[in-house]
Specification:
By secondary structure, the chain is mostly beta strands. The chain is built from one helix and 19 strands.
Length: 350
């Protein structure tokens, strides 16, 4: 759980000036598992891995009340690898933002998640983590943007919510930083019902995304404008929650269509998740391809902070691709083959 690390009262330098109140928190997640993956035509792979049901990270965040409804805040999130004790090459890879909060919404600057990602991640019963993640079948997809300017609607709009984002290109180099991004998401949440739609355009600069025949990803040249649109939603019946989304990526050299439908069922200290996902790549030159994945997770909560879990997944390449579940150390399956996996792990919040 979040633990307050430091609470500071910033005293005014002059008499009669009210002091601004600020606080800083340190918290995070450790998620480690044992993983087994078997790809058709390959040897079995046994590994210790991370991020089965939650992303392992360390996080700092803080907020300062400036008075008059105005606040300032920051959020720093670094992905960590507890299986090896290492961090990522980009240390604050998950998020690094500073915000100004007003009665009219939030202005946020820095490295942040893009709006089109949230429509998928929040409607994936596996939370975009582990061998059940919908990200395992995706061939293209942007999660974050560097150099971003974001605006978020205030939270008092009767269930309506949304955000807009613009990120400057500044010499993008790969899918993590592909180029200029312009997009937004708008949604409505009321009681058990939640629905949202998002749209964005990303213009590649200073990089080409190379063709990958193993996954069916076509070559995407410099200057390509990738158009992303998606819609997703959920409904909580109390005994269970159903969710799903549809996403489409329009590329200069093809079109990628992805969808998922899933559900979560809590009972006692346990939770069961199940989902089916499919990704179809239609290319202008070459062969079209489709990848599907069935997955299920059982989670037992020892406490509000600690959980044990197990996930099983069955990924199928319907065409000549060789997409694999994460965790394989001996290569992907034979062309058109299957990838099967199981992971058992423990997750702890601190």
């Amino acid at each position: 759980m979040k633990k307050s690390l430091l609470a500071l009262a910033v005293l005014g330098a002059y008499a009669g000036v009210a002091s601004a109140q600020s606080s800083v928190q340190l918290f995070g997640t450790l998620d480690v598992n044992g993983r087994y993956v078997k790809n058709d035509g390959r040897e079995k792979a046994y590994t210790q891995s991370t991020d089965g049901i939650n992303s392992s990270e360390i996080r700092f965040q803080g907020i300062e009340d400036l008075g008059g409804g105005l606040k300032a805040g920051f959020n720093l999130r670094s992905g960590i690898n507890p299986d090896t004790g290492t961090s990522n090459a980009k240390f604050w890879n998950r998020r690094a933002t500073v915000s100004l909060y007003t009665n009219f919404g939030e202005l946020r600057l820095g490295r942040d998640y893009v709006p089109t990602f949230w429509t998928q991640a929040l409607n994936d019963p596996f939370g975009y983590n582990g061998i059940g993640s919908v990200g395992n079948v995706a061939r293209y997809g942007q999660v974050r943007a560097d150099n971003s300017f974001g605006y978020f609607l205030p939270s008092n709009l009767g269930g309506f919510y949304g955000q807009l984002m613009y990120s400057a290109a500044e010499a993008g180099t790969n899918q993590d930083r592909p180029g200029r991004y312009v997009g937004g998401q708008f949604g409505f949440r009321a009681g058990p019902f939640d629905i949202a739609a998002a749209y964005a355009e990303t213009e590649l600069v200073a990089t080409n995304i190379a063709a990958n025949l193993a996954t069916g990803l076509p070559f995407i040249p410099n200057g390509t404008k990738i158009k992303t649109g998606n819609i997703g939603g959920s409904f909580d019946f109390g005994f269970g929650k159903i969710m799903g989304f549809y996403d489409e990526e329009k590329l200069q050299t093809g079109k990628e269509k992805r969808y998922e439908i899933g559900a979560t069922f809590p009972f006692g200290q346990s939770e069961f998740r199940i989902g089916y996902m499919e990704d179809k790549m239609d290319v202008n030159v070459g062969a079209d391809s489709k990848v599907t994945n069935w997955a299920a997770t059982y989670q037992y909560n020892l406490s509000k902070r600690t959980a044990l879990y197990g996930t099983a997944a069955f990924l199928q390449n319907k065409d000549a691709t060789s997409v694999a579940l994460p965790g394989s150390t001996v290569g992907g399956p034979n062309s058109g083959g299957d990838s099967k996996g199981v992971e058992l792990g423990i997750r702890h919040f601190f």
